[in-house]
């Protein structure tokens, strides 16, 4: 079977999603199971202007409401239940008992997207890994043994980054640089957002994995470099910069110094997008960057800080 091209991966996702929307057409939507996959499903409905009426955790309790399962209060003629966890005999029995039948009244979404009760969850990266032999998020890191300034590799919520990127209007002149790009998980979302990108990674194994991932997806690898971010100065060609809390301490301060120096060399509006902003004070310390926006996000710190410099 010929491997899908990058844009075909997204085309296939949107086609499958449209099929799901058609099953929900005109009905009230119930998401049952509000872990990572459930929140992702909520995200794609919201991102496409669709409404979700009820969100239940795996036990059947409505989020934010202290009451037991409400299946008995839902009309199978007007509601469709989207399950985001593996089916069990007990779950099927409960649904059938309340008049919800497979394919019309309820949909196991993991099976719907992947064709089987796959062990993977559902998000953008999982979908890509389902179709292409890549490894975008599994932990694999050497560097922590030698430095406490580098944070553990973390998957994060790709749907939350997608929503953050939706807040920006990128042009063909723009380019974004990812500090601590890991295996390239953010880079593939930058590509989908239609913005040029580059990145730097210190860890040898993750850098090599990143290159393999990009090659497998048919994306360029020459804009990703291996090195120490605090010493890397070749960023004058970028105007957006992304950090998913990759490091702290002197390494982080060194990156800010490099960005400030780039601004003095080439005055321009530089936008720093900082997820899990533990080092906020270091960003604004010298007055070059100022925080201009805060975006809610499903990260450890539930907000992303946006900083900008003044232009020329």
Topology:
Blueprint: H1 6-23, E1 28-32, H2 36-47, E2 54-56, E3 79-83, H3 89-97, E4 106-108, H4 109-114, H5 124-131, H6 158-165, E5 175-179, H7 185-193, E6 196-201, H8 204-216, E7 224-226, E8 240-244, H9 249-265, E9 271-275, H10 280-284, E10 290-296, E11 303-308
Helix pairs in contact: 6-7
What report would you give on this structure?
The chain is of the alpha/beta class and 312 residues long. The chain has 2 domains: 6-131; 143-308, Vaccinia Virus protein VP39 (Rossmann fold), CATH 3.40.50. The chain is 34% helix and 17% strand. The chain has 10 helices and 11 strands. The protein has helices at residues 6-23, 36-47, 89-97, 109-114, 124-131, 158-165, 185-193, 204-216, 249-265, 280-284, and strands spanning 28-32, 54-56, 79-83, 106-108, 175-179, 196-201, 224-226, 240-244, 271-275, 290-296, 303-308. The strands form 2 sheets. The protein has a 7-stranded mixed β-sheet with strand order 7-6-5-8-9-11-10. β3, α3 (89-97) and β4 form a beta-alpha-beta unit. α6 (158-165) packs parallel to α7 (185-193). The model has no long low-confidence stretch (mean pLDDT 90).
A few lines on this structure:
The chain is α/β, with parallel strands linked by helices and 312 residues long. The chain has helices spanning 6-23, 36-47, 89-97, 109-114, 124-131, 158-165, 185-193, 204-216, 249-265, 280-284, and strands at 28-32, 54-56, 79-83, 106-108, 175-179, 196-201, 224-226, 240-244, 271-275, 290-296, 303-308.
């Amino acid at each position: 079977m010929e491997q899908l091209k990058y844009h075909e991966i997204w085309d296939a996702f949107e086609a499958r999603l449209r099929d799901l929307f058609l099953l929900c057409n005109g009905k009230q939507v119930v998401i049952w199971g509000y872990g990572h996959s459930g929140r992702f499903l909520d995200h794609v409905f919201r991102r496409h202007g669709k409404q979700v009426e009820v969100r239940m955790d795996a036990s059947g309790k409505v989020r934010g409401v202290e009451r037991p399962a409400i299946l008995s209060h839902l009309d199978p003629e007007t509601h469709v239940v989207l399950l985001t966890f593996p089916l069990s005999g007990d779950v099927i029995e409960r649904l059938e008992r309340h008049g919800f039948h497979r394919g019309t009244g309820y949909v196991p979404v993991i099976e719907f997207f992947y064709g089987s009760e796959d062990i993977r969850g559902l998000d953008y990266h999982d979908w890509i890994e389902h179709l292409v032999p890549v490894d975008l998020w599994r932990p694999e890191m050497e560097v922590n043994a030698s430095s406490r300034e580098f944070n553990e590799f973390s998957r994060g919520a790709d749907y939350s980054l997608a929503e953050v990127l939706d807040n920006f209007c990128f042009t063909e002149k723009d380019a974004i640089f990812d500090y601590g790009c890991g295996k390239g998980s953010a880079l593939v979302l930058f590509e989908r957002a239609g913005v040029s990108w580059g990145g730097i990674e210190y860890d040898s194994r993750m850098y090599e994995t990143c290159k393999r991932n990009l090659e497998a997806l048919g994306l360029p690898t020459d804009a990703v470099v291996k090195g120490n971010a605090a010493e890397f100065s070749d960023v004058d060609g970028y105007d957006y910069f992304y950090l998913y809390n990759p490091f702290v301490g002197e390494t982080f301060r060194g990156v800010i110094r490099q960005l400030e120096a780039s601004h003095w060399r080439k005055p321009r509006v530089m936008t720093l997008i900082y997820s899990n902003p533990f080092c906020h004070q270091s960003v604004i310390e010298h007055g070059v960057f100022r925080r201009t926006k805060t975006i809610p996000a499903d990260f450890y710190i539930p907000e992303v800080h946006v900083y900008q410099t003044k232009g020329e």
